[in-house]
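Homework help thread (please don't just give me the answer)

Our assignment gives two proteins as sequence + structure token strings and asks us to describe the second one. The first is just a warm-up. Here they are:
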Amino acid sequence: MKSVDEHMKKFTLDSIWFLILPLIGLIDSFYLMNIHYNPGICVEQGTFLGYPLDCGYIAQSSYSEIITIPVAMLGIFYYLTLLIVINFRHTDFIRKFGAETITMLIVGLGMAFTIYLVILQLAVLHAICVYCMISALTTTTLFILTVLMYRSQ
């Protein structure tokens, strides 16, 4: 049986997860952009850990934009940038800086912003957007995989 270290040595940007996860995040971000401009389309009900599930409320809050740019648009930009770096990692420009290093930087910034947004939902807005949490889970998974990839070099 192979050890964890042996499996990590094979983990690179060629992994299918570095294509699937940014695509999931991109689709989710486009849907969140739609919710931002059409908050009535989100019909979440119930609670989770005592917090109401309400994407429409979060999408219309004062925290849903940064200098008039919807946070969902930043998500679209983030996931598209990741897909571009990963799919064009063999070009001279990206190879010059190292695709793994660029990916780690992008995902690290994405993780920091994700933590900020989750804290906003829980501590300030006192509500949860399921689709925001899908993006948070996607970024967290990408962060873990990127750290594992970076450590295995």
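The one we have to describe:
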Amino acid sequence: MLTAETNLTNTINDCQSALNQDNLQAYISGECEGNASCTLSFFDEDGNLDSNLFNNAAGVPSACFTGNSMLFVTAGCAIPDADLQTRQVEGLVIGCIFISVALFTLVYLDYIRQIAKNNFVEWDVKTVTSGDYSVEFDITEEFYAKFIEVHGHEKEIGVPMIVHFRKWITEGIENRLSQMPDLGFEDEPVTEIKVAVTQFAFDNAELIELLKQRGAAITTDNFDGMRELDKKINDLKKEKLSKFSTPVSCFMTFENEEGAQRAKKFEEATLEEENAQLKHLRIWFETDDEELKKKYHIELQAASEPSDIIWENRHFTPAERRKKEIVVVLTIGFALLLSFIVVFISRQYTNEKAAVYPIVDCTPYYENYGQTLESFAITEYKSQ
């Protein structure tokens, strides 16, 4: 058996080496390219092997043309023009369908968004809370220090500075909003805006955390731990009393809708060119330093619902919040990128392994080559 396979291998190698590959390829291309079928002949008119197709026509083994000898030719199939046009039309139709689906999806999503917006307005009207009449703004350390420097001496004896500041900031907001044009949210024009309640938030996260621990100690009857926490709380208040009594945010609730809407539109109204007469309302302290002007500015915005506020986090400035948002976005983006890389590499590895042993229908090979398929396979394997 081994001798027969060796002889077959030698014969195949001799047949392959006898072929003139370049001339044969040119001959096959000329006879078959562009045709549905073609007939090839390796002999000339006299019945001899064509010398253009063989390197040594006289030395070609006769076994190359007898028995089950076959010539393997790999050729690419050209798509007829009619089929090509049909495929182009089908591709255009499919593309139009995809575009139509995408447009429908965009319109549907916009419809859903508008419906949700209308539902929110309806819900908001039915569930009016103090938050709908409230605004909030941050208070910088520089702003509060400037207030103490300029207006601290006006404080009455025995009145805490924070109480004096609440009165001053409330009157300042009321006076500024009263100078803005009426927006028409009340039945009659409102000439004097009034603030119902002014509340501050402080940088007291450490104190709140200790108070939480103290409450947990009381709940579990850990009175020794409670006394220890009481001592820590008292020491912390002595050490950072000034910090705990410095406001970092302010919440104002107005007596009517007109006041709340003027406050929410204060930024926009005082920056518009046509309202140049209102720009002076943005100034709380006179200074030539542009950086201090920004720190002395108050930016009014709609207040969050009280239940949505984490009071111990109110000391974070907008810049700090923005930094945290950037860190979160970058972290999520990095995680998504990493997962994409892992999935991509895994998929590529899977495709490489799948390509080694692809699923192939071998029935045509068995039908064409019969018992000789195994011999050809062994020969090809040994020739690599």
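TA reply:
I won't write it for you, but here's a hint about the kind of observation we're looking for: The beta strands are 134-138, 195-202, 247-254, 301-302.
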